[in-house]
Write a structure and sequence with these properties.
186 residues; Jelly Rolls
């Protein structure tokens, strides 16, 4: 892990967290370093490959590769805000949004092509997947650094609407934790 150059401004004071917009600037800056050859990307057919680029008390940066059909489960980042930017390929993101006020939630599907960036707060629930036929690479930033993740299921029928149901919470410093398959209904 190399020392991260600051892409903008002076360092935050100890204990200050980065805003989602600042996290997106860090992810974009780190993505430029990857493109310049500062970090090598690898791919793993069994699971998403990932590498920590940087971590301190306020910031956590990760490089993640996605082969076609690889993805996450519906999750949040355990109280951390975050951002990601797509370096190569296209990722699909399903974002949970409140429904009509009756306790239901709705999944909004968004396509994230090369250069797309997403910044989000601590209560953002999403699922990121590579639904394309080509590999994809992204950089992710979190503040505070990850310490846990929560995983969810949506609706009793597994459809795109319904109640958001917590199915697992786990301590982790890794954005790609091994989650037991038995946690989710088949």
């Amino acid at each position: 892990m190399s020392a991260l150059r600051r892409p903008f401004g002076s360092p935050h004071r100890a204990g200050d967290l980065f805003t989602p917009a600042e996290l997106l600037r860090y992810a974009t800056f780190a993505a430029a370093e990857v493109r310049a050859g500062e970090y090598l990307v690898s791919f793993d057919e069994a699971r998403r490959w990932h590498r920590r680029l940087y971590r301190d008390r306020q910031l956590d940066l990760w490089l993640i590769s996605w082969l076609p059909s690889q993805g996450t489960q519906l999750h949040d980042h355990g109280g951390s805000g975050g951002a990601f930017t797509v370096l190569t390929g296209t990722l699909s993101e399903a974002i949970v949004r409140p429904g009509t006020g009756n306790g239901e939630a709705v999944l909004l599907e968004r396509r994230r092509p090369v250069g797309a960036g997403v910044a989000f707060g601590a209560h953002y629930v999403h699922d990121v997947r590579n639904l394309s036929g080509s590999p994809a690479v992204s950089v992710h930033a979190y503040s505070p650094p990850l310490t846990s993740m929560n995983f969810y299921d949506l609706g009793s029928d597994g459809g795109a609407t319904g109640g958001l149901r917590l199915v697992a919470s786990m301590p982790t410093e890794d954005p790609e934790p091994e989650l037991p398959r038995t946690t989710f209904a088949a």
